Amino acid sequence: MPPEESSPEGQQGQQPQGRQHEPPAIAQKEGFPREGDLVLCEINSVNPNCAFARLEEYKGLEGMIHIAEISTSWVKNIRSVVKEGKKVVCLVMRVDPHRGHINLSLKRVSEVDKRQKFEQVKRARKTARFMELVAQKALVPKGIIEALERDFTEAYFAFEEGARRGAEALAEKGLEAGLARAIAEVGAENISFPEVALKASVTVSSYSPDGLGAVKKVLAYAEKAGATVSYISAPKYRLALVSSDYKSAEKKLRDIADSLAALCKKEGCDRFDFSLVKEGNKEEEVRTG
Q: What domain count does the chain have?
């Protein structure tokens, strides 16, 4: 699935006037950022010794980047680093709410920090769009974004939680039932989770008079437990399981293996081997019985 939008950084200085497809707005926060926060900014004006930037996530706030905080290397001309209209990620150095002053740093932001912030901004834009859809289904109280951030770190994660676990998981956090249901519905309708397919090889054999029946019973149990069973060559079979993440798929396959081993013992099977199929078709032996 292609990403919803390209990184804001990749759009610097390349947006013609009258662009038809602007990215969704970011939900605006009240108050001031905290010292140490990473914030997305747009450069408003550039002076010889500093630049002023609008904080896109906060209503009406502007910060100052001193030339000493522009780059880790010596800067002869500040405009060689920043220009009006450029989107940048800054670190909040100092905040004086009484005077309305915010000191920012550009040089103290690593490439990893920058990349993670742009990903967070993408999620924030999706959240703004999702909240518009929620408002069509339920009453949205003032300050809901901040409330969701307190409970889920980011408001977007509330939509993910609702999509995965339903409205009940959101109601457990204190959300009103109608609002929780609306967030869960919007999340389920708009968020798709990648699926992981995990495979395992099993060897099951029995030389008892009813050995074939015992093997069939073991394989039928694997299918009942949620795995897809396919024939390789007697006595080897393939188990496959699809899940939303690798860890849960691996845990479930291992749990199935434990149950199959116990069933094989009960049915008098002579051999049971289980191995996960890793990347490159390498198998990790985890049980022999």
A: 3
Task: Inform me whether the pLDDT recorded for 250 exceeds 80.
Answer: yes
Local structure of residue 29 (DSSP, 8 states)? B
Give first-to-last CA distance, the chain, whole Å: 43
Phi, psi (5° rounding) for residue 254? -65, -40
102 shares its domain with 123: no
- pLDDT band of 279, cuts 50, 70, 90: low
CA–CA dist 65, 108 (Å, integer): 11
Taken in order 25, 26, 27, 30, is the CA torsion positive or negative? negative
Is 136 contained in some domain? yes
Give the residue carrying structure tokens 């974004």. Answer: 145
Quick one: tokens of 113? 């920090």
Is 83 found in the same domain as 141?
Answer: no
State the pairing for strand pair 62-66/101-105. Answer: parallel
What gap in Å lies between CA 239 and CA 283, rounded to an integer? 13
Residue 256 belongs to a domain = yes
Residue 47 has pLDDT above 70, yes or no: yes
Side chain identity at residue 190, one-letter code: N
Question: Cα 130 to the chain's mean position, in Å?
Answer: 16
Range of the domain at 136: 113-190
Q: What is the pLDDT of residues 60-114, one digit of tens each?
A: 899 999 999 999 999 999 999 999 999 999 999 999 999 999 999 999 999 999 9
Give the number of other Cβ atoms within 10 Å of residue 137's Cβ. Answer: 14
Q: Which domain-ending residue is among 128, 163, 190?
A: 190
SS3 64: strand
Q: Residue-wise over 233-267: b if at least 16 C-beta within 10 A, else e? A: eebebebebebeeeeebbebbeebbeebbebbeeb
Tens digit of each residue's pLDDT (9 = 90 or more) over 109-134: 999 999 999 999 999 999 999 999 99
Residue that is last in its domain, among 109, 130, 160? 109
Q: Is residue 28 part of a domain?
A: no
